Amino acid sequence: MRKNGNLSSLTITRRGLLAGSGALAGLATFSGLVPLPAAAQDSPVTGGVLKVAFSADPAGFDPALGPSGMSHVVIEQVYSTLMSVDTEAVPYPDLAESYEASADGLTYTFRLRDGVTFHNGDPLTAEDVKFTFDRLRAEDSGYSYKSQIETISSVDVVDPLTVKFTLSVPTGPFLTYMAFPGSSIVPKKLLESGHDLNSTPVGSGPFKFVSYQPRSMVVFEKNAAFYEEGKPYFDGLEFHLIPDVTALTNAVISGTVDFTNEVPPKDWATVSSAPGIKGQTLEGSRYYWLLMNNTVAPLDNPKVRQAIAHVINREAIVAATFFGQAVPLLGGVIPQWNWAYAGIEAFNPQGDVEKAKALLAEAGVPDGFTTSMTMASSFPAMVSMAPILQANLASIGITAEIKTMEIPRFWDEVWAPSAFDITTMYWVSPLADPDDFVFNNYATGTGINVQKSSSEAMDKLLRDAKSAATQDERKALYKAQQELALEEMPIAPLVNSLLLIAHSDKLQNYKPMRTGFLKTLKDAWIQV
Length: 528
Prior knowledge:
Elements: E1 2-3, E2 6-7, E3 10-13, E4 49-54, H1 69-78, E5 83-85, E6 91-93, E7 96-101, E8 107-112, H2 126-137, E9 152-159, E10 162-167, H3 174-177, H4 188-192, E11 207-213, E12 217-222, E13 236-241, H5 245-254, E14 259-260, H6 268-272, E15 277-292, H7 302-311, H8 314-322, E16 326-328, H9 353-362, E17 370-376, H10 380-394, E18 399-405, H11 409-415, E19 422-428, H12 434-442, H13 456-467, H14 471-488, E20 491-504, E21 507-508, E22 525-526
Parallel strand pairs: 4-13, 17-18
Antiparallel strand pairs: 1-2, 3-7, 5-6, 7-8, 8-10, 9-10, 11-12, 12-13, 14-20, 15-19, 15-20, 16-20, 21-22
Helix pairs in contact: 7-9, 8-10, 12-13, 13-14
């Protein structure tokens, strides 16, 4: 909001979200609704245990150490964050009752809910918030998402229920960062006593951790003291870990489990039409991309990388790998539903052989070359698309030998040391701020930038876009970033796969999130 031509501070509470502008970069996106209290919903039913199917094991439960999406799905049930994001990824106050942002965008003061306790009974205070972020910011923390907290200069306790964050520069996505599972508030007193959160998580979220059996199940029970009155409605959750996708499909169809958002694309038609099952599809933020090692000749030439990007038949990948349940990425990686979508259509969906050949000629390799393509065999979609990519490259004279390697060996021998010519990967955007789609993939030196691209112009655009004063300025900068990405082509965007969600038709009031996270399960119930 503006006052006499200058920005005033803005206070947001759970009673309503006010649209802001100017230095309050993140606030201009507030258009979503705060989840309604239980009393405003239709006949919620309490009780029962919801059984959810996943294909992967979590890799730890400490918010500072759990790097994987599966870890975060567990963490979000057990812990709480200062902010949450709604189904459209718009932030709203959660563990915080309200917050105030300064006019210059450099300080955020959060007022915490009174009376919140951790699952062990300890009160949650501003000291726990400060401890949480000081722990993440420590040089030796090992936190995988340091880019989200790098602009935090200090975290100060104002009083037991008030905490102030001071930033080094305005940070547009700051409020969405505060909703990330890695930003979950942990119990200071318990950790200082030597407790290991990675094996036994203790938070203040809707469900308490009960047990974990590797490659089998994670069990939760209801947190009866949860701060959202009446929630959660379930007595507990069971996360069934079913690595075989056919077995996962059968578990859903048979009713062995009640819910999954990991239906294999090949089984979607069967599962979604099965009696007693409701299917939902949603374009979210699970995009796939091709990585070309930017330090290995001739892939170090941007014209060669452009040729590869332009020859790919994305329609064929959508049809053969995802059985139609994906969207080809024809320009930048920020999807159409996001406010920073640039509307760029640089690629022919079926590929453009002649353009690719011309680019190879410009690069000085008109006859092509020999290379290798290493795929993680634990990811079926990547293995499925490998022959399509291989054939596309062959059409312009590039011979690519396909190699496969299982996880976790792939992480250790291929990904971390950048020991590949070409590979693929997918990204599940945990928050869906545009920064989250692009920064880690394109910025110099990040852990996800294993293609080893480095560009001063790209780094400047990424940081300017993160700290720009208004949403309109941020959007323009993200468009410029995506245009530059298509010139430098450090990675080649492929497709955005749809979220394929199937659940018992007795599950009521479940609202899927574009991020693929499942925090909204606390708002749902089984109608009996």
